[in-house]
Design goal:
Pfam families: PRY, SPRY. Keywords: Metal-binding, Zinc, Zinc-finger. This protein is mostly beta strands. It has helices spanning about 5-10, 30, 70-75; strands at about 90-95, 100, 120-125, 135-140, 145-150, 170-175, 180-185, 185-190, 200-205, 210-220, 225-235, 245-250, 255-260. The longest helix is centred in the first third of the chain and has 5 residues, at about 5-10.
Amino acid sequence: MQTVSLYTLRKGGIKGFGGPLRLPKRNFGQVCRDKVLTNGHVTQAAKPGHAHQQKIPVYEPNIPEPICRADLIKHWITLSFDDKTANKMLWITDGGAKVARMTDDVTCPVLDRPERYEYSPQVLCKEGILGFRGYWEVEFSGWVVVGVALERAGRRNSHGSCGLGENEESWGLGWSGSTYHAWHNGRSTEIMENNKSSIIGVYLDQPAGVLNFYSVEVKEGEEGTAGKEVKLLQQIKSSFKEKLLPGFWVGTQSHCLLTKKEE
């Protein structure tokens, strides 16, 4: 895998080097600001709601890792955006299932809060994962980063870099307009996958320290029937000792939609 920053992508990419290239840490706001990829549509902000009351599944250790979407669906969890954490440039709609961003000069009229992201255009979910497995899917448009962050990860400018994957306390996978990148601790790794899907799947086995990112693609089957398949984009293995919250970084004129489990 090549290692490259989003800043390099904006300059046209790096060609001809044979091995990984480590680049200086950069801030999401510096490398992604004003990058418009698609035309988003934003409506009024949703009213704050309560987190979904879900029964925490019993954790069974040493079970085989999921190898197909049917396996992943068994660990599906329902998520909702926590508007209290959303940066003022983000708009939460669809009952807490959609987050969108227009331009930097269009902000949501909300009060400042200590748990709100001060600068980074990010939002966390109300539901955290600790002691069990979880899988969720996100439909997106534009330039986004999807990932997880520790509950204690910084959200204010005084805390240092707060973007998903900019620090040691968060991990993310993003679509830059031409390729996928995995982010952690201020470094990005380019993922050599040519086919872009509009849906990203995330699987987290918190006790085992496994975080997988998938592209979710619609495939036509026999007699014109359609189904969804997953392709592993990146696997991260770490020691997750604390609760992790699903998080989302949203570029200008972009959006993320938390999809519902198919019945």
